[in-house]
Amino acid sequence: MDLTLQVKILRVLQEKEIERVGGSSIKSVDVRVVAATNRDLEVEVAAGRFREDLYYRLNVIPLQLPALRERDGDILLLCDHFLQKFGDKQQRPRLTLSPDTRKILAAYTWPGNVRELENFMERMTILCDSNSITPADLPRKILDQVGVIAELPEPISPAPVRPQQAGFQWPCIQDLNEQKLPLKEFLDAVEEKLLLEALQQANGIKNQAAEILGVKRTTLIEKLKKEKN
Prior knowledge:
This protein is mainly α. The protein folds into three domains: 3-59, no CATH class; 68-151, Helicase, Ruva Protein, domain 3 (Orthogonal Bundle); 173-227, Arc Repressor Mutant, subunit A (Orthogonal Bundle). The protein is 53% helix and 3% strand. It contains eleven helices and four strands, in the order H-E-E-H-H-H-E-H-H-E-H-H-H-H-H. The strands form two sheets. A two-stranded antiparallel ribbon has the order 1-2. A two-stranded parallel sheet has the order 3-4. Helix 4 crosses helix 5 (99-107), helix 4 (72-90) crosses helix 6 (113-127) and helix 10 (206-213) crosses helix 11 (217-228).
C-alpha cells in the first residue's frame, strides 16, 4: 500500500472523518474496520514500507489464520462443500472424489489457499464428464507435486462427534446461575450454539442446516442476521 494512502487511512481511524473524492466538505463516519493481509506487517514496518502508527491502530484484535496446508483436516471438508455448492449452481449431481483423488488433494499444499481450492472445485464441476473425480482428471501441476500416489498417507478426517453417554438433559436453574446471564441472553446463547452447530454439520449449506433444525430456510437466515446484530 502506498504510504500516502496509509496516511489517509490513519486519518480516518484517528479522526473518524473522510473527504469524498471530488468533494470539499468533511464528513464524519463511524465504522468498524476489518483488515487482512498476507504479509508480515512487523517486517514491513521495520523495512519502512508500512507506517508503524497505522500498524498499531489496526492491530487491536489480531487473528492469525493458518495457511490451508497447515489445516489439512479441513481440505476434504472444503472440497465436499464446494462440490455441493457448484453442483447446485451447475444443476448437476454433486461430484464425488475417488479414494486416490482424496489422498492427492489432501497432500497437495494449495499455495493459493482456500481461493485456489474453491476455483479448482468449480473447474472440476464444469469440466468433469463423469460423476467422480479421478486422478486422471487432475492437472499435472498437482500430480507432480504430490509424487507417487501409493506412498501418500491416508487423508486426515475430522473426528466424529460422539454422542453423550448420559443422555439428554434439559438446562436447569443451576446452569442459568453458573452462566450469570439473564434468561433471554441465556436462551439466545443456546440458540446461537445450535445454529452454529447445524451450520457446521451442514458444511455451511443453509438449506441443509435448516432441515437439521426443522425450520424454514428464511427463518434460519433471519435468526443468523439477528445473531450478527
